[in-house]
What we know:
The protein is an alpha/beta fold. It has helices at 12-20, 41-51, 63-72, 89-102; strands at residues 2-5, 25-28, 54-57, 80-83, 112-115. The chain has four helices and five strands, in the order βαβαβαβαβ.
Amino acid sequence: MRYLLDENLPPSYRTQLLRRQPDLMVWSVGMAGAPPTGMLDPAILCWCEDHAFVLVTNNRRSMPTHLADHLAAGRHVPGILVLRFRAEFGRVIDDLLLIAAAAQRDEFQDQIVFVPL
């Protein structure tokens, strides 16, 4: 499992995921090799598809529309994990680690799943 954290998520998500599982691949928008800060969501979905990263975001409003447009264009995405409104930080970290450890390779393909589960 490889996670790309949306630029609007605090860096503490990446820090805590890597603190608890150092070998987990967790990149953030704006890091070297990742999409640059300010990249539009449709382009981020293409990047995630091309690089096999599951997107982790708090964009609950427009992401369903972006995913529908992406799929309508014949594209795919490894998955989108959307943080629930007012989700407890520790539960989010626990669930992201659980997903990384237990999920099948394509389990979340072309889906939006809300976290905590």
